[in-house]
Amino acid sequence: MSKVINEFCHIDLKKETVVTIGKFDGVHKGHQKLLKYTVNYAKKNNLISIAILIKKRNVSIYNIEENTNFIKELGIDYIIVIDFLPEFYTMEAKEFFNKLIEYYRMKHIAVGFDFAFGRNREGNREFLDKYSKERGIGVSVIKFLNYKKNRISSSSIRDCLSNGKIKDANKMLGRKYTISGKIVHGNALGRKIGYPTANLEIPNNIFIPKMGVYSSLVKIGNGDKLYKALTFIGISNINKELRVESHILDFSKMIYGKKLTVMLLKYVRDNIKVNSIEEVKLLLKKDEYKVREFFKKEKKCL
């Protein structure tokens, strides 16, 4: 069971450690390679594994809680969550490196190929090679993973999501992309026209994929059952707010207040401006047909 500590400070450890560091946004396949290496190195060398998770200041694929949970699943012993504050990113590389030794009994450090830390990113590979030898610390530099000849990265995943390339994003994530939040009341227009929707309360600073209509699966609460759905992401015509709402096929229960996890599977179409309720109904019927046809062909998604 991983232990999460929300402070950059000394902790009482009975053994020396192997440490890895990163923002780990999305915990994609490249991150997974680095984290699994850290876990395996710790096991082979009778060390404790530590992942230092640096909170992002801007928009993220997943929130810090979700990223932390993904890291837990990989078997890391300790997750140290650090706010990206001035006292952290203005610290000299030597000072930061020394604190890793002081706070966490670091014996080995594992980093990605382009990782750098400290003021002005001065803690680069050249620094690590030299200073780690002075301090008697081992270093492992893990090479990138590629997908379609390009490096797997959080930014490349966001690019795919921005262009409706869900399958490519999923390949790089190593799991199905999801967006989660609490189900809240909407304007009830969908219910009035026979297409009730579960409206998602959009978390702060979460990246929003390309606006439009998607074939999707949804999970309600912490249950395991997945429901087929038609999901809309876009700006409401009524209050001009951004909305993520799912019409769950063949479903009629009241689920307000529960957590909803939406798994996007395929981009169906762009948002289209409509001029009447009848046009909306006609459009939704076409969308529903396409989504049902998608699931007939893609039974493996379930």
TrEMBL record:
Domain of life: Bacteria
Gene Ontology MF annotations: FMN adenylyltransferase activity; riboflavin kinase activity
Pathway(s) it belongs to: Cofactor biosynthesis; FAD biosynthesis; FAD from FMN: step 1/1; Cofactor biosynthesis; FMN biosynthesis; FMN from riboflavin (ATP route): step 1/1
InterPro entries from the UniProt entry: FAD_synthase, Riboflavin_kinase, Riboflavin_kinase_bac, Riboflavin_kinase_bac/euk, Riboflavin_kinase_dom_sf, Rossmann-like_a/b/a_fold
Enzyme class per UniProt: transferase
Record's keyword terms, sorted: ATP-binding, FAD, Flavoprotein, FMN, Kinase, Multifunctional enzyme, Nucleotide-binding, Nucleotidyltransferase, Transferase
Domain Riboflavin kinase, first and last residues per copy: 172-296
Reaction equations catalysed: FMN + ATP + H(+) = FAD + diphosphate; riboflavin + ATP = FMN + ADP + H(+)
Enzyme Commission numbers on file: 2.7.1.26, 2.7.7.2
This protein's record includes keyword Kinase: yes
Annotated function: Catalyzes the phosphorylation of riboflavin to FMN followed by the adenylation of FMN to FAD.
Record-stated family: Belongs to the ribF family.
Protein name (record): Riboflavin biosynthesis protein
Native source organism of the sequence: Brachyspira catarrhinii
